[in-house]
Amino acid sequence: MHDGDETSSVTEEAVVRKRRKGIYILPNLFTLAALFGGFYAIVMAMNGRFDQAAIGVFCAMILDSLDGRVARMTNTQSAFGEQMDSLSDMVSFGAAPALIAYVWALTSLGRWGWIGAFVYCACAALRLARFNVNTAVVDKRFFQGLPSPAAAALVAGFIWLMTDAGVSGLEVRWVTFALMLYAGLTMVTNVPFYSFKDVSMKRSVPFAVIVLIALAIAVINIHPPIVMFALFIVYGFSGYAVYGWRKAKGLQTSVISTSTEEPEERGLHK
Question: Least C-beta-crowded within 10 Å: which of 24, 82, 168, 261?
Answer without folding.
Answer: 261
